[in-house]
């Protein structure tokens, strides 16, 4: 569920400050959303000025923006040592910069842009994952609905199982056209309201094992730091 309270000034401060963390010769995970977009544009300006970097996009939208900004892109298998017919080992992403919809105690709810499956893959693979948010995203306890990407045929059964867990699932629909939101992976998103989430780790585990769940938007213990921007352009680094 998108929170719209944050200002562009605060998002810019967080995104552009995090973009300064990118070192020459490294691979950077490029997040999705309006705050991560400030980071992508700032990295693009640094590439124009001579920075040697390769980006791994977390979504179609992030890929398009990175291309527009002139950031050379590679695919995740290219940096994880995957050979054809082989799994490969290890992760080759030095730093990932990504937004979040809600942050409490370093844990996140993501997926407002329906990109959380690939975001989790890239953010978790990074040696350092820096979250960029404005202050409106920071709270004591997570309580926003949790986006859950599901196989299209599983939306009903997942909604039933979410009800068994004490939640209420709503199929996400697009703002300006009929029909559901379809993810980059061809799946659907159900937003699952549980109220206050006192134990994000336990809920994450319960959601992960539901048949038909591709990925949920609880990011527990994945973030290394959270850059919180404010309207005056200051950035507070937390967790
Ligand atoms: C997309 C995400 C985004 O990072 C999240 O929605 C934050 O976006 P914004 O910076 O525009 O508020 O998780 O799936």
Automatic annotation (TrEMBL):
Transmembrane segments: none annotated. It comes from the Archaea. InterPro entries: NagB/RpiA_transferase-like, Ribose5P_isomerase_typA_subgr, Ribose5P_isomerase_type_A. Gene3D superfamilies: 3.30.70.260, 3.40.50.1360. Homodimer. PANTHER family: RIBOSE-5-PHOSPHATE ISOMERASE. This is Ribose-5-phosphate isomerase A. The lineage of its organism: Archaea, Methanobacteriati, Methanobacteriota, Stenosarchaea group, Halobacteria. The gene is rpiA.
């Amino acid at each position: 569920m998108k929170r719209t309270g944050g200002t562009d000034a605060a998002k810019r401060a967080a995104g552009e400050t995090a973009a300064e963390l990118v070192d020459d010769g490294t691979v950077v995970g490029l997040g999705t959303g309006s705050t991560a977009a400030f980071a992508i544009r700032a990295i693009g300006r640094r590439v124009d000025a001579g920075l040697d970097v390769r980006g791994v996009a977390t979504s179609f939208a992030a890929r398009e923006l990175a291309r527009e900004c002139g950031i050379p892109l590679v695919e995740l298998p290219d940096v994880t040592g995957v050979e054809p017919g082989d799994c490969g080992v290890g992760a080759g992403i030095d730093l990932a910069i990504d937004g979040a919809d809600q942050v409490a105690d370093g844990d996140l709810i993501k997926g407002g842009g329906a990109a959380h499956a690939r975001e989790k893959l890239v953010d978790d693979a990074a040696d350092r994952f820096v979250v960029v948010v404005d202050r409106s995203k920071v709270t004591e306890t997570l309580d926003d609905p949790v986006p859950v990407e599901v196989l299209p045929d599983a939306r009903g059964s997942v909604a039933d199982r979410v009800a068994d867990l004490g939640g209420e699932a709503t199929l996400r629909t697009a703002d300006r056209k009929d029909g559901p939101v379809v993810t980059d992976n061809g799946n659907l998103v159900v937003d699952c309201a549980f109220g206050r989430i006192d134990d994000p780790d336990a809920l994450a585990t319960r959601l992960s094992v539901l048949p038909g769940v591709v990925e949920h938007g609880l990011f527990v213990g994945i973030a290394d730091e959270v850059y919180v921007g404010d309207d005056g352009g200051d950035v507070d680094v937390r967790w």
